[in-house]
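We include this case.
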Amino acid sequence: MTNEQRQLVDNIRIAIAVLSKEEEIYRQTVELIDGFSDDFDWTGIYLLRDGILEVGPYIGPETPHTRIELNQGICGAAAVEKKTIKVDDVKSDSRFLACSLSTRSEIVVPLMDGQTVIGQIDIDSNRTSQFTSDDQVMLEEIATVVVDRLKQVGRQ
């Protein structure tokens, strides 16, 4: 991870440490991640509720995909597989659900509470191959920081 990426993880840890509401924690996390790169064109969190991924706080164009079934899209696949999925060119992945015609790459990182998926961080970019392995490590660490904070405050 680069120094800038490490700093983002630390900034999120510090920022959410004073927050006590789940929605505030998610919103602050999305805002800080989105501000990290001009090439993050849609940054959001989906929450797993009753077997459906429901859009939470996000920054970017309005999405038609406010609810995603677990067997649909890259988001659904990441939740089922319980692992990060990074797609360098969404046009080459039949699972991709187009939120925007300009999206070219996507990364989805599950928020894991033990072996249970509670949600995910989803980022789209209008550039192909936008997300590096360092970005993946950074986002997976952010996911851990977020879940740890949610446990401290008792998820609502």
Observations:
- The first helix runs from residue 3 to 17.
- The helical segments are 3-17, 22-36, 73-81, 133-153.
- Residues 3-153 form a domain with the Beta-Lactamase fold (CATH 3.30.450.40).
